[in-house]
Design a protein that fits this description.
This protein has helices at about 1-15, 95-105, 130-145, 150-165, 175-180, 220-240, 255-260, 265-290, 295-310, 315-330, 355-370; strands at about 20-30, 40, 45-55, 60-65, 75-80, 115-120, 185-190, 195-200, 205-215, 330-340, 345-350, 375-380, 385. It is α+β, with helices and mostly antiparallel strands. The strands form 3 sheets. The protein has a 6-stranded mixed beta sheet with strand order 5-4-6-3-1-13. It is globular. It binds alpha-D-galactopyranose. Alpha-D-galactopyranose (GLA) binds next to helix 5.
């Protein structure tokens, strides 16, 4: 992919000068959903699929973007003097937002650049293609412009800042962190309360991670996501009248049960319940994995889905169909929706010898119930965003 993309770059923008190559992964979250903006724990990993980019610095203030994934939209041209969100700028609002975020934080890019990209993360699958692009842009800016003192965690925070303030999606830090800090065969146990983290080797004893993309057209995801976030904030504000906590992630299940009636709105109470229990489940799941107990890990994944379905209400018919079919399948250790929800994909841990049957049966049930096909991907855990040439 890298070589072909380089050829595309040369065709569009010419082959002279210092042309460099980069890669930024997608991510999948194994457990800990909708906890990252509640000061809880998450357990994602970076994937070996992601976004490739080829870039070269310019001498003027122009920026040119092109993506093979949106080839019909052609080349977008903008400039450092127009770091503003424009609807018609389409996907380029993501990388542009990062240039803007750098500037806001005092890392001012003084000349433009040309950038050609291509990603193999299935479109709209919920494997964080936007965060992948944000971190790709971050790594490129640091490499081309030599900003010193910016760590990979700083780049994750800049990516999140761009997504929140430039693109209007109030996401937490999980996606950008996982993509920036990914490590081959390791998942990241991250405490979003203080960004302390630890790598945990994923030893799956002959099982693999299988992603099922629902292919549901995602509408209103951002607004529903922002709505859930606001519901959690309302619950927290009610609890804070009785208890001195910073975030829902500070509570154990027992503490929540004692204080839950402080939350006036029953919908917000359910949302808070998910946030608290899911955080504790994530802590337990990682402990089980470390103890070599993959079975318990899988059961906690299943419980996570139930909570996202019943209390957090972010699954929907498509994801429920995929997960419920997976649960019935031989050789499935655990299965749940992953990411924001409302469409997107599920993550399952499946014994290697059962994967073919899994894909066949779950695929058939899905198509019969939903009316169109799901796509399946057996994925590997890879390294974070980086320069590759
Ligand atoms: C999206 C957001 C993340 C996280 C998940 C849900 O992927 O970008 O910050 O909140 O949803 O866990």
């Amino acid at each position: 992919m890298q070589q072909k993309l380089l050829e595309k770059f040369q065709e569009l923008f010419g082959g002279e000068g210092d042309i460099r190559s980069y890669f930024s992964p997608g991510r999948v979250n194994l457990i800990g959903e909708h906890t990252d903006y509640n000061g809880g724990h998450v357990f994602p990993c970076a994937l070996t699929i992601g976004t490739y980019g080829i870039a070269r610095k310019r001498e003027d203030r122009k920026i040119r973007f092109y993506s093979e994934n949106f080839s019909r939209l052609g080349v977008f041209e903008t400039s450092l003097d127009d770091l503003v969100y424009h609807e018609e700028a389409n996907w380029t609002n993501y990388p542009k937002g990062v240039v803007w975020a750098f500037k806001e934080k005092g890392y001012v890019v003084d000349t433009g650049f040309d950038l050609v990209m291509n990603g193999n993360i299935p479109n709209g699958s919920g494997l964080s293609s936007s965060a992948s692009v944000e971190l790709l842009m971050g790594v490129i800016l640091v490499d081309l412009f030599g900003f010193e003192g910016l760590s990979m965690i700083d780049l994750a925070l800049l990516g999140q800042y761009a997504e929140n303030k430039f693109n209007g999606m109030n996401c937490g830090i999980m996606d950008q962190f996982a993509i920036a800090m990914g490590k081959e065969n390791q998942a990241i146990f991250l405490d979003t309360a203080d960004l302390s983290y630890e790598y945990a080797p994923i030893e799956m004893k002959g099982a693999k991670i299988v992603i099922a993309a629902s292919n549901k057209k995602r509408k209103l995801t951002d607004s529903k996501y922002n709505e859930r976030r606001a519901e959690c904030e309302e619950a927290l504000a009610d609890i804070q009248k009785q208890m001195d906590i910073k975030a829902l992630g500070d509570l154990t299940e027992e503490q929540f049960e004692e204080v839950k009636d402080a939350v006036k709105n029953p919908v917000c109470r359910k949302r808070a319940k998910h946030a608290v229990y899911e955080n504790q489940r994530t802590i337990k799941a990682v402990a089980a994995l470390k103890a070599g107990d993959l079975e318990t890990f899988g059961k906690l994944m299943n419980a996570s889905h139930v909570s996202l379905r019943d209390d957090y209400e972010v699954t929907g018919k498509e994801l429920d169909t995929l997960v419920e079919a997976a649960w019935k399948q031989e050789g499935v250790v655990g299965s749940r929706m992953t990411g924001a929800g409302f469409g997107g994909c599920t993550v399952s841990i499946v014994k290697e010898e059962a994967i073919d049957e899994f894909i066949k049966h779950v695929g058939e049930i899905y198509e019969k119930e939903i009316g169109y096909a799901a796509d399946f991907y057996v994925v590997e855990i890879g390294d974070g965003s980086r320069r590759i040439g």
